[in-house]
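Hi W., the magnesium ion complex you wanted:
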Amino acid sequence: MTRSPSLFPLFAKLETLEGVGPKIADAFAGLGVKRPKDLLFLLPHSCIDRSRKSSIRDVSLPCTVTVEVEVGLHIPPRKKGRSYRIMVRDAAIEFQIVFFHNRGDYLRKILPSGSIRLVSGRVELFEGVAQMVHPDHVLCPEEAADFPFFEPVYPLTNGITQKQIFKAVASTLSRVTALPEWIDGPLLAREGWPTWADAVARVHAPISPADLVYTDSARQRLSYDEFFAHQLSLALARATLRKVKGQVTVGTGMLQAKVLKSLPFALTNAQVRAIAEIAGDMAAPLRMNRLLQGDVGAGKTLVAFQALLVAVEAGGQGVIMAPTEILARQHYEGLQALAAVAGVRLDLLTSRDRGSARARKMTDLADGTIHILVGTHAVFQKDVHFRDLRLAIIDEQHRFGVSQRMELGAKSDATDMLLMTATPIPRSLALASYGDMDVSVLDEKPPGRKPIKTALISTSRGAEVMARLRYAVANGRQAYWVCPLVEDSEVLGYISADARFKALRAVLGDVVGLVHGQMSSAEKDASMASFVAGKIKVLVATTVIEVGVNVPNASIMVIERAETFGLAQLHQLRGRVGRGAAESTCLLLYQIPLSGSGERRLKLLRDVEDGFRIAEEDLLMRGAGDVIGTVQSGLPCFRIADLKRQGDLMEIAQVDARRLLDEDPTLTSPRGRAARTLLWLLDQDRAIQLLSVG
Ligand code: ADP
Ligand code: MG
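Structure:
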């Protein structure tokens, strides 16, 4: 891409800036500053009030004060190691300026007796005497004119002082030239935002504390720039994906109608909407790349099945992949009845299928006898061939790494893709991380669900919990007992689950079962099956049961060391109960002492059941990166913008970015070219390469 030469000085080496040598340049790297332009986005986080007072008497000490003084007597230290004192007088009183060194020559030069000086620094009382120790600034009256009232304070790093940052920023600002505008004109006017050049100048010259908060229009503009650049990159990725020709898959609606008629309930509005959105994408000649997001129990499986039926109605096949064997089996078993109603052949494929049984399934897939395949990642092995695969669904997609997703995308060139996730994430985060996809949200739960009672209980009351559990089990109820995830290790989780299993067995007998990730698939299935059949009353588990498992009779969820789990995970685990007719309970066992944030999180969970609200609160309590987790990642680290508070800007940015690309797919219009500059400034220029790839 061609870059405007007027920008080159902003991309030069840091050492080209005034006052920056190799050492400081290295230190700047620690602040993420590699080139001058990066300094522009390193914003002051606070400022020091240096407005002039007539006397230090006007403020309550200790305090940073700026006053004009007449310099009096110099009192050099009488003994080595003592301080050097200079008497000064402001408009009202006399005080001392103190230095802990003995460089008299220098001090007589900057503060000669009898002169008038503007001094600024922290004044405190020491043994009843007001003194300013090592003033931050000493200026002649002539220099005082352009001394800022508010001095910006930058985030510090080892090896750089405020003054050095200030100087480097000033030097960079002098290189800034006006740039063609990339923000949509009407939006800029409506928001009253400054131009980019004005905005960067203003954020570095705050004149009041109000200029330092995100609501300041210059900061808003720069935040928007970041969001816009990010959304533009995602939109470019999306456009590239959409260039992939898809198949036109139009269903007849016949099979779907049969299934709906057989259900004892009606679809929720959200389900109807999601199915329509998915069917719309499948009917379009572009490859679908859609995310279905819905809280636990929102009914994603049914939406998925209806979408799979669209593929079958059109004469094709569909596949749904689950992250674990347990889930795959459960989907398979749960969907059997619906498949029978629709008259389609459903089959299961996991890594346990071997030999002739597997070979038979391969043949049936290849000749189209199997309409819908359910399975684990085994369904995407190289030798699995479909006759006419139209739709691939990935359930609980956050359990799969990015690479697996990519592999899948590569495997199925034109196949429409639907990803499903039960991890509700706030809208702003969804926009930030899935901006390259289209998103359907199930924001409504089927009616008639009973609320889950959630209680926080200290582990010291373990005996009480055991007693309650024994009583509940005696009354025919079933429970999960989830053991902590120790340092994310399935192995350690297994140890704690195993210990708990033995302890519960000792009390409750052989109605206690165990399931964890270290067991073989057959063992896991056996445990799950006896739990589903009701032979096992208490299932001790690691987080393998976190996603999707559906046992409606289970109405008690005990989570041990709940404080060690993330909010989203706790919410998922709790979602395993409350699926049947009985009142459900979730007991969050925690170990004292509970940290402040731990307590806030558990209380939030106790008080709120709506996953989206929990996610929003979670975002407010923690950073965006923590909420979304690292696996999904793709979430950029914004330097100025704050997703917590400026989610609305992200939404505007997405609409705007997609529109710009619709109108100017190659970014060659004047605004498109300006947008390229933005991408370059914000290190998103790799996105531009997508333009040439397609
Ligand atoms: P999730 O979104 O967590 O995957 P499921 O698809 O497992 O949720 O659905 C949870 C339960 O809700 C299932 O037993 C399903 O049959 C039921 N269900 C789905 N849609 C509806 C609806 N519209 N009305 C009532 N129950 C529904
Ligand atoms: Mg599900």
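The pocket of magnesium ion (ligand 2) is lined by residues 300-301, 422, 548 (CB under 6 Å).

W.
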